Write the C-alpha cells for this entry.
Amino acid sequence: MNLVISIVNYNSEIQLIKLLYNIPRNNDVLICIIDHSEEISTPIKINKILHDLGHVNFKIIKKENKGYGYGHNISINIAYELKAGILILNPDIELPERFIEDHLVNLKKNDCAYMFKTEMPLMTYTGIKLDGMQTKYMCDTKEILQITDYLAGSCMYLPDDIIKRKIFFDEKIFLYWEEVDLSLRLKIMGVNLWCYTGCSIKRAENSINAKIKSIYYLSHNSIYIKKKYKINLLYFIIYILNLFNYSTILSAKTKKIEPVILFFRGLKNG
C-alpha cells in the first residue's frame, strides 16, 4: 500500500458519499474513514457504497468524537504501519480527475509536505500566509509550487518519509488551529511546506451554522497556540480583536447573540 486516504466524518454523510464517488479505485490506496457521526447506521451505508463502487481496500472505524486531529491520527498510525504516505481530506471537497495518478505521485518527497490550489465559491487560493496569528490567502502565484506558511486542513498530503517520523496532530486541539500547529512543528523539523498549483480541488463554503460554531474553537485554541509557541502578545491581541469583530458581524448577519457569546466563552475556557 502506497497511500492512505484519511477522511473524518462528523454528521456529513451526504458530502462524504459525494466524495467517495469522486475517489477512483486503486489497489495501492487504502481509504480510512473515521466515523464520528451520531448516526449508528452510517458505517453500514458507507460500507455498502464502497463495495458497490468496487473499492476493496478500506477501513471504516467508528470512534467517539474527540476532534479532527484525534480522528486523523488513527489513520496516520495506520499509514506508519504500512510505510505509506497519507492524504488527509475533508468530506466537503471535490478532487480533480486522475488526481492521484497524474499529480500526487509526481510530487517529490525528501522533507516536503503539500496542500493544493483550492477553489471556493468566493475565492481561489494558492497558499496561506500566517501574518502574526492572522491568516491571509495567497491568490496570485503562477508557480507550480508556492511556499505556504501552513497546510490547509481540508486537503493535505504527507509523504511516507514524513510519516516515518511519527508526526501527529496535537489532540489537545479539538478543532481549528490543529493544521497550523502541525505545520509549525513540521517547519521546525525542517520540512518544506508547498502548495501545488498544477491542479485544483474544489471546496464548499462553510454554512452559517458552522461559521458560528467555529468562533468558540478559534477563540479557545488561539490561547493554547499563543502559549505553546510563545507568540508575541501584540499579534495575539490583534487576532483576538479581529475575531471579536468577526463574531459581531456574524451576530448582526444572523440576528443572534450566539457568536459573541461563543467568542467570550472560548476566551474564558482557554
About this structure: The first strand starts at residue 3 and ends at 9.
